[in-house]
Amino acid sequence: MTTQRRILFLVLCACLFFHSCQDVFGRRPNIVLFNVDDLGWSDLSYQGSLFYESPNVDALSRAGMVFDNAYACAPNCAPSRACLMSGMYTPRHGVYTVGSAQRGRSADRRLIPVVNETVLADSIVTIPEQLKRAGYRTGHFGKWHLGADPRTQGMDVNIAGREWGSPSGGGYHSPFSFPNCKESKSGVYLTDRISEEAVKFIESSGNKPFFLYLAHYSVHTPLQAKQEYVSRYTGKKPDRGHANAKYAAMIQSMDESLGRVIQTLRQQRVYDDTVIIFISDNGGHSGATNNRPLRGSKGMLYEGGIRVPMIVSWPGITTAGSRCATPVIGVDFMPTLLEIAGLKPKGGQVMDGKSIVPLFSNPNVEWPERSIYWHFPAYLEKSGGAGKGVPFRTTPASAVRRGDWKMIHFYEDGRQELYNLRNDLSEREDLFAKRPEIARQMSEDLVGWVKDTGGFIPTVANPDFRERNP
Length: 470
Prior knowledge:
Elements: H1 3-25, E1 30-36, H2 55-63, E2 65-67, E3 70-71, H3 77-86, H4 90-93, H5 127-132, E4 137-142, E5 157-159, E6 176-178, E7 181-183, H6 190-203, E8 210-215, H7 227-233, H8 245-267, E9 274-280, H9 303-306, E10 307-308, E11 310-313, E12 322-324, E13 328-329, H10 333-341, H11 357-361, E14 371-376, E15 380-381, E16 392-394, E17 397-402, E18 405-410, E19 416-420, H12 436-453
Parallel strand pairs: 1-8, 1-9, 2-12, 3-13, 4-5, 4-8
Antiparallel strand pairs: 2-11, 3-10, 6-7, 9-11, 14-17, 15-16, 17-18, 18-19
């Protein structure tokens, strides 16, 4: 088949796919985007954990498609969410990290990092703003972390969303006070309360298609769980570094939330008309879990910081129990959800991602190889996974993955590390010196992308820096 005929064939298939969806559902499908905070790639029983228990997530993995190479666009919360909501990589919106990029002691920082944006600009068109053009009712429940009110960026309903990155006040246990989510009496658990509000949203949507963004604060610190759930895991045999009973109990509550949402979809007889996407916003926090076999943790550009669990269930489209090995990333959600809704992008805003809808029905569909990127010109102070004597989880760095290859570039000393993820998922063997041609190609790709997107490159020396003793 010639290239021109192949292109025509793919276009025809895409058109038939969209029209078949309309025929099956009779309307635009509902969309549930279930985004968990700080949930590690291996922190679910469908991923092999024998300590954590997640029966509802496991059931979703059997009902839909698991993406084995899914990535967040950043190793921590705010930039990951900004990329997801905008469809753009970090250099385009300027939300590179959480809070200030000058984390840790100034004397330890060799370079002056980026001046970070902490709010996603209202001028940026978000997923809910796009979907509202197709008549979607939009609702946000839980952690927003991109500004004071998600209703300024397309959400019709906001429950508990502010610029906060973790639960304020008393944490997960009432009394608590969040926007439209207040509780004065004791004994109410935040994850449960947010779930109740999400259920009400589904029940009140009637025949109108809805976009439910359920973004729990859980399983982010502080580690606070229901005591009766903690007791269930206390004394349980650890597995692969998974041993934290409070964290396990928080996963159980998160899992129950997903179960309640799915149960409500079935009760409202809209489950078959709904796309469910389950993801995490970044890798697991080393103070709470262990990301084995992945290297590193939240805050790092090693796999443990950016590779995340992802499941898509779309009845009639995704094949039950299927798995997809194609690398996908957070900026893909904007074009994907637009295609699901039958929309074209509004205005001239850049979309860095690619719709992954064709993968839903065929994980082995012909898929052009592409590069995916990370740019993190910021410092994050040490956490448990950083290594002895190291003051930072990460210094300013960028990364690129193309095919099986991944390169990380560190700006303080210009060091580059090269890994083959097919053969070395744990990133133990740096192949930079052994594969110079691959290293050169990857480096040119990464440098060119940072330049093309206008990414901030830290080059100015920090006058406060003091050389660390080896």
